Amino acid sequence: MASRKKPAAKLDKYFCCPFCNHAGSVDCEIDRKEWFAVVKCFVCKETYSTKAHALTEPIDVYSEWIDECEKANQDVDVRRRRRDSYA
């Protein structure tokens, strides 16, 4: 006898915000009529929007948002400059 296949795991719909780090506070809405996707955080109100297509899933939009955040922070110097208080 053949064993039954396990059902595929469902993808997440709620994610961790890269700005406020609250778990499960980011929701993704995909408008299939206008082919537009919006990711927004309920806590800090940060949003990201992009174009969508027929195969777009919420994890794809969230990953694109994370990639854009990393791209924006690439040129930023992480170390803070020391202020000269005696100037």
From TrEMBL:
Cell compartments where the protein resides:
Nucleus
Q: Which Pfam families match?
A: Zn_ribbon_Elf1 (PF05129)
Matching SUPFAM superfamilies: Zinc beta-ribbon
What cellular-component terms does GO give this entry? transcription elongation factor complex
Point out the coiled-coil segments of this chain: none
Instruction: Write out the entry's keywords from A to Z.
Output: Metal-binding, Nucleus, Transcription, Transcription regulation, Zinc, Zinc-finger
An example of a GO molecular function for this protein is:
RNA polymerase II complex binding
Predominant location category: nucleus
User: What family does the database annotate?
Assistant: Belongs to the ELOF1 family.
Name of the protein: Transcription elongation factor 1 homolog
Q: Which organism is it from?
A: Lolium multiflorum (Italian ryegrass)
